[in-house]
Design goal:
- This protein is an alpha+beta fold.
- It has 23 helices and 23 strands.
- A hairpin with a 2-residue loop joins strand 19 (578-581) and strand 20.
- The two termini are 40 Å apart.
- The mean pLDDT is 84.
Length: 792
């Protein structure tokens, strides 16, 4: 029987190649798109799960007042918690990323992906060590742990154990371990690790185990017997907060501490400041998973639509089979078998499509995704998708066709309209509802990304270059200022402690007249030189800029508008007001217009500017059209004052753009799959219109003989589809509004969604539907009526 079913299925496919092509191609494209999306989703969900103890590892995060949530905590906290809490098995602290110059002979690089870390790093995390001893690799103060790629960069091979590198033109460090390249699915990305003991004697926070400065990322490994229920984790959070409060004076930062599971760091760190870069976004994962389901649903709808539309052609077959003894269950099995055959043929084509398109998709998504053909789970997943698709797509046609009554069928009294037509119309409406929602989302995502890229951050970001003050420049700052001022290409410069891109510093000890002593506000600050406002082309709203003419400016402050409002003051009374911040007492001498110094997902916070006493980065505004010449001038100055260190520079607008890499990826992927969803819908609509035009061939012939024009016939054939698309528009627009509002809630600053976006997307869908239907409609309308009527 199964052999007979298979033979009939293959015969039906070969007899109707156009129908088979549309069905298989539509399903294959839908499956391929869904597989690509699900590969991306799986990759996003797999971060940090390669760690053997992933379910026991947590990161300590802090909540200080409603507006400040951070991923850092004090240096003394992990050891203090472990001593007081038996639930904690082990801890490790990781510093902020550090840039270090390494040298081996003539090979010299400034390595930017490195950390200082406690010796317990490899006890907690499962980073694979290919050379060295995990227990001792980070115990030597003069040691270094490097990745396989870094070993090859300096030594030409990975066997670098025991070899030395010169660090920052000074001390030698010995390679105590070589790690396999860090997995791309790790939230900690680095090329080298220096032992925390190397700086433990010189950094006050480490030497004195302080509890009031938040400069380290700390991870805890909980005991295996600990049950990570919500109640138990909440209890641990409360204990951490209580222990912290016992270690700080009452006037210091009031904070609550929360354990964040390691496996949630990548996707659930959106609200955390002072965090490491490279995290994903859970909202994007949800959106793309829904898109994958949408696309597969649209592909299944195509199949169901075409199968039910062709039901009349198979009615006699069903009637004859029932007459000779076939029961309904056998017919359902036959039709579901045909559906599954089409689905698995589509799966084979989908795998080919995915294999060919995966390299391009990896470039678009900036991932390294692979099809794991040797993985049994992978094959089970694909077979499951194909089987589910086949069963879903074939269920209604199978139930509908098997339900035909043989007497009516064989007497020719079967009405193929009614419920069949209503169901088909419902499927077409569903397809276009999904397509219009995706089209509208595409327009909004594109406009939001454009808004991010072109929004004025409060300063002119073009032509701003910066050079880190590394090496010997720290001791030659007077000469540096003289060299930059002397050259007209570099004379428009300033020195800032941190770049206004993603500011991470902040203090809670700000004091001013009228401040509520019980109010605690985290206030970021920037160290800037006198020319900062001019170089960045910002606007002073009240008072004046810093100036070398006023020696007292070294103790004074400029605040932004938000800080002025936080102080409860206005432009008329804020100038001259006393302000104490970060242990410095002074006066407010100016108010600068608000500007973004963090990603625009975050609202602008209060900000204090003070005179830079330490250095950091030299920022130069290059003269228009002379960027290359300015870079050469900066390089000449760097080589003169800092000959032992390689010259490095970057563009500020590129740093700003890198903050929104996730948005760019999402926009590109979303556009691609929204287009595919519309394409699949059109494939089904084309097949449906071709079939219906063929079914009405005689009617069209009669109408032409009676004088109907080509336009009349095209209008007749298109009207039904137009009504369906119009109904889809009415349903889709409210759904699109809800989805768009949910998406834009994640941004503190976002576009205003103009009303015309919705009719534009709807009109685009309508035009595409017209174009899809018009080919077959024109073909039928322009046919010779004698051919269709000669048998009458």
């Amino acid at each position: 029987m199964l052999k007979n079913y298979l033979k009939i299925a293959i015969r039906n496919l070969s007899r109707h190649p156009a129908y088979s092509f549309l069905n298989i191609t539509g399903l294959a494209i839908g499956m391929a798109a869904s597989v690509l999306i699900l590969l991306w989703v799986q990759n996003e969900l797999s971060y940090d799960r390669f760690n053997a103890n992933a379910d026991q590892i947590y990161r300590i995060t802090v909540v200080a007042s409603d507006q400040f949530k951070a991923a850092t905590n004090p240096a003394g906290m992990p050891a203090g918690l472990q001593a007081a809490m038996p639930e904690i098995r082990n801890t490790v602290r990781v510093s902020h990323p550090v840039e270090t110059l390494f040298e081996k002979g003539d090979i010299q690089f400034v390595e930017k992906k490195g950390f200082y870390a406690d010796s317990t790093l490899l006890d907690i995390f499962s980073f694979p060590l290919i050379k060295g001893d995990r227990r001792t690799a980070l115990q030597r103060p003069d040691g270094i742990l490097i990745s396989e790629d870094m070993a090859k960069r300096y030594f030409g091979h990975s066997d670098a154990l025991g070899k030395t590198l010169k660090k920052d033109n000074g001390e030698l460090v010995t390679v105590t371990g070589v790690l396999a390249n860090i997995p791309a699915t790790s939230s900690l990305q680095f090329d080298y690790i220096l032992p925390m003991s190397a700086v433990a004697r010189t950094v006050d926070e480490l030497k004195n185990s302080v509890w009031d400065k938040f400069n380290f990322y700390s991870y805890l490994q909980l005991d295996k017997n600990f049950v990570p229920s919500i109640a138990n984790l909440d209890a641990l959070d409360g204990k951490m907060t209580q222990i912290y409060q016992r270690h700080i004076p009452r006037d210091k930062l009031k904070a609550d501490f929360i354990l964040q599971p390691l496996t949630s760091i990548h996707l659930h760190s959106d609200g955390l400041q002072v965090d490491l870069p490279g995290h994903g976004n859970s909202q994007y994962v949800s959106i793309f998973f829904i898109v994958a389901v949408f696309i597969l649903a649209v592909a299944c709808i195509n199949f169901m639509n075409l199968a039910t539309a062709r039901s009349a052609r198979r009615a006699k077959e069903v009637g004859l089979r029932k007459v000779v003894g076939a029961v309904r269950g056998q017919l359902i099995g036959q039709f579901l078998g045909e559906s599954l055959l089409i689905s698995f043929l589509a799966l084979v084509l989908a795998i080919v499509i995915v294999s060919l398109s995966l390299p391009a998709f990896n470039v678009l998504a900036e991932k390294d995704l692979h099809l794991h053909f040797s993985d049994g789970t992978f094959w089970l997943s694909l077979i499951g998708i194909a089987a589910l698709t086949g069963l879903l797509a074939g269920s209604y046609p199978a139930l509908y066709l098997s339900g035909f009554q043989p007497v009516k069928v064989l007497k020719g009294r079967l009405k193929s309209m009614g419920g069949n037509l209503a169901f088909r119309n419902g499927l077409v409406i569903t397809q276009f509802v999904l397509s219009i929602v995706l089209l509208t989302g595409t327009v909004v995502v594109y406009n939001q990304l454009k808004f991010i890229q072109h929004r004025n951050p409060g300063f002119t970001k073009a032509n701003l270059l910066y050079m880190p003050m590394t090496g010997e420049i720290w001791g030659r700052q007077a000469a540096l200022r003289d060299e930059f001022s002397r050259n007209p290409l570099t004379s428009n410069y300033t020195i800032v402690g941190e770049l206004p891109v993603n500011l991470i510093s902040g203090n809670v000890d700000g004091k001013w007249p009228g401040k509520d002593p019980n109010t605690q506000i985290v206030i970021p600050g920037m160290n800037v030189s006198e020319s900062f406002i001019d170089v960045f082309r910002m606007k002073i709203l009240a008072g004046r800029d810093f100036s070398t003419a006023f020696k007292t400016d070294s103790n004074n402050f400029i605040v932004n508008e938000t800080m002025m409002r936080t102080m409860g003051m206005t432009l008329n009374n804020v100038i001259g007001q006393p302000l104490s911040w970060n242990g410095q007492d002074g006066k407010v001498i100016g108010v600068v217009q608000d500007f973004n110094f963090k990603p625009i997902q975050q609202a602008i916070e209060p900000l204090v500017l003070k005179i830079n006493r330490y250095g950091g980065n030299v920022v130069v505004r290059a003269p228009e059209g002379q960027t290359e010449a300015t870079i050469r001038a900066m390089e000449a100055i760097s080589r003169k004052l800092n000959p032992s260190f390689p010259f490095t520079y970057n563009f500020l607008d590129q740093d700003l753009a890198s903050l929104y890499k996730g948005e760019r990826q999402m926009s590109g992927i979303f556009n691609l799959f929204a287009g595919l969803a519309l394409l699949i819908s059109c494939l089904g609509l084309y097949g449906l219109s071709a079939y219906l035009a063929q079914e009405r061939t005689r009617e069209i012939g009669v109408r032409k003989v009676l004088g109907a024009s080509v336009f009349n016939i095209v209008y007749l054939l298109s009207t039904g589809f137009t009504r369906l698309v119009l109904v889809s528009i009415v349903i889709a627009i409210p759904l699109a509004i809800v989805a768009i509002n949910r998406f834009l809630e994640g941004y503190a600053y976002h576009i205003r969604v103009n009303w015309w976006i919705f009719p534009l997307a709807a009109f685009a869908a309508l035009v595409v539907a017209w174009l899809t239907v018009s080919y077959e409609s024109l073909k039928a309308a322009m046919g010779n009526p004698t051919k269709s009527l000669k048998s009458e």
